[in-house]
Amino acid sequence: MVYGTYRDLFTAVAASAASLTGLLFVAISVTPRSSRGDRRDVVQQVRAAASLLAFTNVLAVSLFGLVPGNNVGYPAIVLGIIGVLFTLAGLRSMLADPAGRRRIRGQFGLIALLLATFTVELASGIVVLGNGRDIAGLDLLSNVLVASMLIGVARAWELVGDRDTGIISSIAALAGRERPLTGYGVLDGPAGEPDGPPGPPGGGGQDGSPPPAG
Questions:
Q1: Mean pLDDT throughout 78-103?
Q2: Where do the H-state alpha helices sit in the chain?
Q3: Cα(167)–Cα(158) distance, integer angstroms
Q4: Residues 176-209: tens digit of each pLDDT
């Protein structure tokens, strides 16, 4: 259980995380789906899941930390391990997907940020577990929870806007090379191939039939 000013902070963080989680579900439910029935690409799936995990991480650690008699180090360690495993699994999923591999370079920032956040949370949880009143450990854990919430907000904004809002992607947008998160469209391929297989030279149909006369 956290005490003093940390208890007030954890209460505020838990309330904020709960509200943002509810808004995230609303945003997901009203986000337009592709009329073509295609599934979302793996990069967007990982980013959407990262947003939910970031909010859930803050909510779970804060609530368990407010329970009388609990050592907040336990939920911090558990959620830290889950976060690290999720990040590694997301990286593996993007590497296993052909479209994800083409865009993996632009996801290194998110992967590094998630690994750093959950690794520090795991370390701070171990420190707090050894001494529940350790000020340095609680300070570090509190800052990690705030950072995790901000990560979730940024990923949720990408989900609603269907655009990557990172620094590298913002520079690419200024250079006229912005890509949608869904991966569909004229900039999906490495060289900007159009959506769908191209037809043969000469303007014929996709099945090789000659163009209509006249």
A1: 89
A2: 4-30, 42-66, 73-96, 98-102, 108-130, 135-161, 167-174
A3: 13
A4: 554 554 443 333 333 344 444 555 555 445 455 5
